[in-house]
Amino acid sequence: MTKIDDVARLAGVSTATVSRALRGLPTVSAATRRRVLAAAEQLQYAVSPNASRLAGGKTGTVAIVVPRITRWFFGTVVEAVEDFLDQNGYDLLLYNLGGREQTRQRVLRTASLHKRVDAIILVATPLRPADVAALTKLDLPGVIVSSGSGVPGWPCVRIDDVAAARTATRHLLDLGHTRIAHISGDPDDELAFTTHLDRRRGYQEELHAAGIRTDPSLDVESQFTIDGGIRATAELLSRGEPPTAIFAACDEMAMGAMAALRDAGLRVPQDVSVIGIDDHDLAGVLGLSTVAQPAAEQGLLAARILLNPLGVRGADPYPGLVPPAGGAGTDGAAPTPPVILPTRLVVRESTAPPRAN
Amino acid sequence: MTKIDDVARLAGVSTATVSRALRGLPTVSAATRRRVLAAAEQLQYAVSPNASRLAGGKTGTVAIVVPRITRWFFGTVVEAVEDFLDQNGYDLLLYNLGGREQTRQRVLRTASLHKRVDAIILVATPLRPADVAALTKLDLPGVIVSSGSGVPGWPCVRIDDVAAARTATRHLLDLGHTRIAHISGDPDDELAFTTHLDRRRGYQEELHAAGIRTDPSLDVESQFTIDGGIRATAELLSRGEPPTAIFAACDEMAMGAMAALRDAGLRVPQDVSVIGIDDHDLAGVLGLSTVAQPAAEQGLLAARILLNPLGVRGADPYPGLVPPAGGAGTDGAAPTPPVILPTRLVVRESTAPPRAN
DNA sequence: CTGAAAGCGCTTACAG
DNA sequence: CTGAAAGCGCTTACAG
Predict the structure, then answer these.
(1) What is the CATH number of domain B59-159+295-341?
(2) Which nucleotide lies at the shortest CA–C1' distance from B25?
(3) Among B114, B94, B92, B120, CA closest to A48
C-alpha cells in the first residue's frame, strides 16, 4: 500500500510534484518527471481514487442506468460505452434496474449519484416527473439513450421509432399483407417509456396511409421480451383467425412470436410473416427480417457526447452527423434536439407474400 | 451540495454523531438518531462516497471482470451479481475485457483495483502466471466464476465442464449417433481459459467410454460465439462427409451451427442433430437441445461468498450446498475446492436418432 | 451515548 | 519549475 509520500521521498521531491508528474501536467521538468515515474514504477505505486477524487473534486466515473443488461439492446449499448470510457480512463458504474422499484428510487431519486459520478447515461429509462426533478437538481451532465422523455439540458441519442415502425409495416404491406398484427410493450408497465408507443404509432400511421383500418384485435400488448412475444402471440391466436403477418416491436418479441407460431403449427413465413426491430445478434440465425438499429453506435455516441464537455480527448461527439439545429457549441440550457441515428430494413426469411387465398 | 457539517449543525450534534446515526451504529440514542435523520432528510443530504471511503478504508465497491458482457452467460452472471450487490448497498464496477489486451493488462496487472474496490469477481477470465501474481499481491478477497485456473485463496464457483460435455455427448450416443462432431473454442485465443478444454475432454472421454475412436477431422476449433459456430460448421462440412450430430461447446456456437447447416441445405435434426451447453434464453425458441447450466445462480453465489467475509447480511454463502471439504469457516489461505453447481440435460427438437442408413 | 481532534491520501491555490 | 500548507468530507479511536 505505497502512498504518494513514499514516491515523493524516493524521488526526492514534494508530493505536489509527484501528483503533477504522474498526471502529466506540463509544469514539471523532464528530468523530475523521469525520476518520479521511475520511483512510482519501482514502488508499484497506484493512486488512491478516493483520495484523488475527494481532493480533486472529480470522480472519474460515469454511471449507466439500464432496464435489463441481459436484453440485447442494453447489453450492446453498455459494451460500447464501457469500451469508450475504459479507453479514456473512466470507470463505469452499472445500475441494472431490473424492474426493482426500490433500486429505481435509490438510483434516480436520492442524491446518491451526486458525489459519486461525473456524468450519467440513462438508457431507455422511463422517467416520472419526480425523477426528472431529482435528476435536474443533481446538476450533472447526462445523456439519454433511446427514450423520448428527457431531462432538460441532457442531449438525446436515439432512432426514429415511428419511422422504424413504418418501415417494418410498409415492408409487410409491400408484400401484399393486409391483416397485419402488432405486438408491443405494456404501457402500464413502462410508465413514460415512449419506445413502444412510438412504434405502435408508426404501425398505425402506415396502415392508415395504406388505407387500412386498424383492428384492435390485432394489436396485443405484452412485455418487450421473448416470453412477452410468446404470450402476445398466443393471445393473438386465441382471438380467432390469425393475421397473415406480425410486426413485433422488437426482435426478442419477434423471436417469441416465431416460437409461438411454430408451437401452434403455423409456419413462418408460409402461414404467417414475422418482422421485428433491432437486428439482434441472433436475427440472422433465425432468418428474422427486421429493421436494424445501430445499438453500439448509440452507446458510443452517448459516451462521446458526455466526455466531450468533461474535457476528454477523442472529442468530436458528432462524427459525421449534424446535431439537428441548436448550434455548434456547449449551449448549456438550450433544449438540445435529439441526435437521430439511421435504421435500415433487413429482409431475411421470416417475411413473404401471404398465401394466395 | 450539503455536507455532514450542515446536518450536524441543523441537528445540533457533532459530525461524529451524524456519521454514527446515519450508518445505523447502535451507539446513538433513539432521540438523537431521529433528529439526525430528520435533518438529513430535510437537507437532502447524501454522504460523499469518496470521503467516506477514504476515511473509513472501505470502498463499498466490487469489481466484476468479464470477457464480453454481450454474451449470454456473462450478461446473466453480471445481472445476478448486480442485483445482489445493489440490495446490499454495494456498487458494481464493470470491466468488459472485450479482447483488448491493453484493458486486460490495466485491470489485472496494475494495482488500479487495489484502492478502488473491496473485492473482485473474475468471470471466465484466463489468467497468465503474471496475472495471478499481480492479483495475489493485491491482497483482496475475490471469487472466480467459471474457470479452472485460480488465484490462491479465492473460492471458485463453476459447473463440472467435463461432466456437462459427457452428458451432451452421451445424449447423442443414446440416440444412436456414432459420427459425432465437436466444435469448441480456440485454445490459442483463450490462454489458460480451461472451459473449452474441459468440454472437449468430456466429449472425448464419453466417446472412448462408448468404444468410439475420436476422429480429429470431426473436432473443429473456433470461437465461443455465434459466428464461431457458423465458421466451425462450415469448416466441418468442407471436410467431407458430414457428421450425423454436432456437440457444440456452448449454445451460441450451437445456434451458429444450426444456421450454417440450414444454409448448407441440411435439416436439423433429420440430417444432423445439434446440442449445446448453457440453456441460453433463446434455446427454447430455437428448439435447441442443451445441457443447462445455472448462470444466474453462479453469479449470485459468487456475490454471496464475497460479501460474507465483508460482514454483509444475507450471509450463508452456500445455500444448500456443501462446500466440498475444506471446513466451515473462513480458513483463509487453505486452497478452497471449487463449488460445483449442477447441470441438467434439456432435450428439445434439435436432436433425434440418425436417419436409418 | 456524545464530542474534539486527528487522520484517511491526495490536489490545489499561493508563493517563490 | 517546485514546495509548504491548507483542505477535500468523511470516520475513528480516545475521552468523558
Answers:
(1) 3.40.50.2300
(2) C1
(3) B114
pLDDT tens, position by position, A2-48: 899 999 999 999 999 999 999 989 899 999 999 999 999 999 888 88
> Looking at the domain A161-292, which fold is it?
Rossmann fold (3.40.50)
Contact check, Cβ <8 Å, B46/A226:
no
Q: Where are the domains of chain B?
A: 4-47, 59-159+295-341, 161-293
Assigned CATH class of B161-293: alpha beta
Protein contacts of strand C with Cβ less than 7 Å away: A 1, 3-5, 15-16, 18-20, 22-23, 45, 47-48, 51-52, 54-57; B 12-17, 20, 26-29, 31-33, 51, 54-55, 115
Find and list the nucleotides of strand C having atoms within 7 Å of a protein beta carbon: 1-5, 7-13
Cis bond before residue A337 (omega within 30° of 0): no
Q: How far apart are CA B176 and CA B171, in angstroms?
A: 9
Which CATH number among 3.40.640.10, 3.90.550.10, 3.40.50.2300, 3.40.50.11540 corresponds to the domain A61-159+295-341? 3.40.50.2300
Question: Which tens digit of pLDDT belongs to each residue from B59-118?
Answer: 888 999 999 999 999 999 999 999 999 888 888 999 998 877 777 877 777 667 777 888
Give the CA B47 to C1' C5 distance in Å. 21
Using a CB-CB cut-off of 8 Å, the residues of chain A touching B76 are 70
Q: What distance lies between CA A339 and its chain's CA centroid?
A: 13
Q: What is the pLDDT of residues B128-178, one digit of tens each?
A: 888 888 888 888 889 999 886 688 889 999 999 999 999 999 999 999 999
* Interchain pair A285, B70: CB under 8 A: no
Residues 6+ away with beta carbon under 8 Å from B161: B194, B195, B198, B199, B202
Q: Give the nearest partner residue to A54 out of B50, B78, B115, using CB atoms.
A: B50
Q: Rounded CA gap, B180 and B169, in Å?
A: 8
Same fold, A61-159+295-341 and A161-292: yes
The distance from CA A18 to its chain's CA centroid, rounded to whole angstroms, is: 40
